[in-house]
């Protein structure tokens, strides 16, 4: 790498709903108690897990911490320890939640999860006119970066009958902050080794890349908030348990992350068909490897922000590799370079 920048040494641094009574709010006269119809089922509400404050990382280089601290969604979600806490709700909730822990059904559970900062990947909303409460939930989901999809009510019925017109898919594990990954690298006395995914939309590819990243000793995987696969059950299955050990960050703007990493001394290496031979390239030092989407590759602006690009030689008649396969080969090229 012929560059005047010195990029080393910068990282030392429950509950049953009362079966016959319900409280109604009345701004003028205070709360009043009324009767519930006898056909209203008992309901159990999925707890909306809270948001812990963002972790302070005093060891991070100030030039890197400042821009990165604004890139994640309102602080990383942290799952609280201890028993679940259930709250009494006035609304009519489903009698039970789906067995799949990554699905929330019913308006109140989804609303509270969004307000608490729980990462929601996708919100399915039944076709038809939306009530005020439903419009509020849709607005919260869009603000949180979730994909909102209008579907036929019959589809929701197939997934979970007592859906109240909405189902939400939540992340299989909590997302973390980019600073957490850099702090982990510094704690180990290692140069940062990060994987950035630009528009990987197949959850199976995402899971496979996370699995390889964990095996290769990477410090984290970074994905964009929009137009990309998230930590869905399909991605978790493909990762084969790696999500329990490999930190994943979801950011609003991948290009701003790249700029901040470069300012902090990390070499950003993209993948492109006309890049230098990856089998001969120097992949040592603090590295962020950018992998493009399955069909389009790395977007033009993101590619321009990379310090350099590499490619894998194609010996056969097929012109490209699967994204997760190419990522795996390149990751282990970095492993070999780091071993000297």
Q: What's the quaternary structure here?
A: single chain
**How many DSSP H or I helices?**
10
Q: Please summarize the sheet with the most strands.
A: 6 strands, parallel
Which radius of gyration do the C-alpha atoms yield?
23 Å
Structural class estimated from helices and strands:
alpha/beta
What spatial form do the alpha-carbon principal axes imply? elongated
CATH-assigned fold name of the largest domain = Alpha/beta knot
SS elements, strand count: 12
Percent range of helical residues: 25-40%
- Terminal-residue CA separation: 15 Å
Overall mean pLDDT stands at: 75
Outline the low-pLDDT stretches.
Answer: 1-67, 69-99
Percentage of β-strand residues: 15-25%
Give the count of structural domains: 2
CATH superfamily of the largest domain: SPOUT methyltransferase, trefoil knot domain
Give the strand order of the largest sheet, numbering strands 1, 2, ... along the chain: 9-8-7-11-10-12
Which CATH class of the largest domain is shown? Alpha Beta
The assigned CATH architecture of the largest domain is 3-Layer(aba) Sandwich
Secondary-structure element series: EEHEHEHEHEHEHEHEHEEHEH
